[in-house]
Design goal:
By secondary structure, the protein is of the alpha+beta class. The protein has helices at residues 6-9, 13-19, 31-42, 125-131, 135-146, 151-165, 169-172, 177-189, 234-247, 262-271, 288-298, 302-316, 324-334, 343-370, 380-386, 391-405; strands at 27-30, 46-54, 57-64, 98-104, 109-114, 193-199, 208-215, 221-229, 255-258, 283-286. The protein has four domains: 1-71 and 91-124, Single Sheet (N-terminal domain of TfIIb), CATH 2.20.25.80; 133-189; 193-366, Nucleotidyltransferase, domain 5, CATH 3.30.420; 371-406. The chain is globular and about 65 Å long. The structure holds zinc ion. Residues 195-273 form the ZSWIM1/3 RNaseH-like domain.
Length: 406
């Protein structure tokens, strides 16, 4: 079936979920529709395990989330019944369903097909929803969690909205308070940090280049946005920040770290008015390196400095206290740009470096989550268990395993 056909447009969320549950016919969708509208509906059903790249296109094989390769450990004999763990044992090999998703980047299309000889799921869609909710529901929870409501209130709001407005009643019925609480912890526990800084001499008009730098969940810095301004006052900069916001509607930074410019601070406050608009408060924090430079001039007492630095760490709770990362991005950029370039030339250089940064941070998350270690001489069964961990942990475990096998 092709997405451009008229009947595909009229499918309800539930129908789309069914099509991507037991994939009985191959589907072709535009990349954008797949990523934004279809996949978030079924992300909880499938688990990617094999990623291949060929001529720029990628193929990922997904297995059902309820696949289990190994028998759970049996109850130990001789444990008194009141000390037994009250857990249900999921039978192994519960489900063998597999699909293949190929992304054709040049055509802007995705093909979803059943893996050769893959059976249907051994269970209902509800069983999958019970274990974990699809991304689309989890996103709703995130939206509410940002407002810092209590988990029971979030649960109610999401259940109501999903069933009344999104035709996802059957799925959201299985949403549990525990999952909501976990998501809220993820959102509010890991505060995102934003850096803002500017640099000059990247083009012949001497427009200032501003860069927003955002730290992802793996502690990597990634480029959020760039903008040029001809005039460096707070109204102009806040206008630019507002334009960026229009592109990314749910951009709700919690902290902004910057060097010591009052103009930047004022413009951030203008662009993110916070609670006045019923939004999350956004705090502007000054970069400690820059602050320290000023203190060196003004304050000589070491104790005062220490206290201030400690306060800063405590305040952000994220361990990010300097704009150094962004400064080094700008100095790397200076190597390829020149004060003789036009704006378009400058943009080309910027996007090239952006791409490099993005690849670096994608690489880190790939290394962390998806990459699977391969080792000679380690029992296949043990290796399968090891692969369930993030890559850095896999490395540690295989070293241990090798030591044991010797
Ligand atoms: Zn299944």
């Amino acid at each position: 079936m092709n997405i451009d056909s008229p009947e595909a447009e009229e499918l309800t969320s539930n129908q789309k979920r069914d099509l991507l549950f037991n994939v009985n016919q191959s589907l072709e969708l535009s990349l954008q529709k797949f990523d934004n509208e279809w996949w978030p509906l079924v992300s909880n059903i499938w688990m990617g395990f094999n990623f291949k790249k060929k001529n720029g296109d990628t193929t990922t094989t997904y297995t059902c989330h309820l696949t289990k390769c190994k028998q759970s450990s049996e109850r130990k004999e001789g444990v008194p019944s009141n000390k037994r763990r009250k857990t249900k044992i999921r039978p192994p090999n519960l489900c063998f369903a597999k699909i293949k998703v190929t992304r054709f980047f040049q055509e802007g299309k995705v093909k979803i097909e059943r893996f050769p000889d893959s059976p249907n799921h051994m269970h209902s869609l509800e069983e999958s929803d019970k274990v974990k909710q699809p991304q689309i529901i989890r996103n709703l929870v995130v939206q509410e969690a940002i407002k810092n409501y209590r988990p029971p209130a979030i649960l109610n709001a999401v259940k109501e909205y999903a069933s009344e407005k999104m035709d996802l009643g059957t799925s959201v019925k299985e949403l549990r308070l525990k999952e909501v609480t976990n998501i809220k912890y993820k959102v509010c526990g890991a505060l995102d940090a934003h850096l803002i800084d500017s640099t000059h001499k990247t083009n012949r008009y001497d427009y200032r280049l501003f860069t927003l730098y955002i730290r992802n969940g793996y502690g990597c810095w990634d480029v959020g946005a760039h903008f040029f301004v001809s005039n460096e006052d707070s109204d102009t900069i806040s206008e630019a920040l507002k334009i960026v916001r229009r592109f990314v509607r749910n951009w709700k930074p919690r902290y902004f770290l910057q060097d010591q410019s009052n103009i930047e601070e004022k413009s951030i406050k203008l662009a993110f008015p916070g609670l006045i608009n019923g939004e999350q408060e956004c705090e502007v924090i000054f970069c400690t390196v820059h602050l320290q430079r000023t203190w060196m001039h003004k304050i000589y007492e070491v104790d005062t400095r220490k206290k201030m630095t400690q306060a800063m760490y405590k305040w952000t709770r994220i361990g990010v206290t300097s704009t150094n990362a962004l400064e080094s991005f700008h100095s790397e950029l200076k190597r390829t740009t020149s004060p003789q370039h036009g704006i378009i030339g400058a943009c080309h250089k910027i996007t090239t470096l952006d791409q490099k940064k993005r690849e670096d941070s994608d690489f880190v998350s790939f290394e962390f989550r998806i990459k699977k270690i391969s080792v000679m001489g380690v029992d296949e069964e043990i290796l399968q268990e090891i692969h369930k961990f993030p890559f850095p942990v896999q490395k540690m475990l295989t070293e241990e395993a090798c030591a044991v096998e010797k």
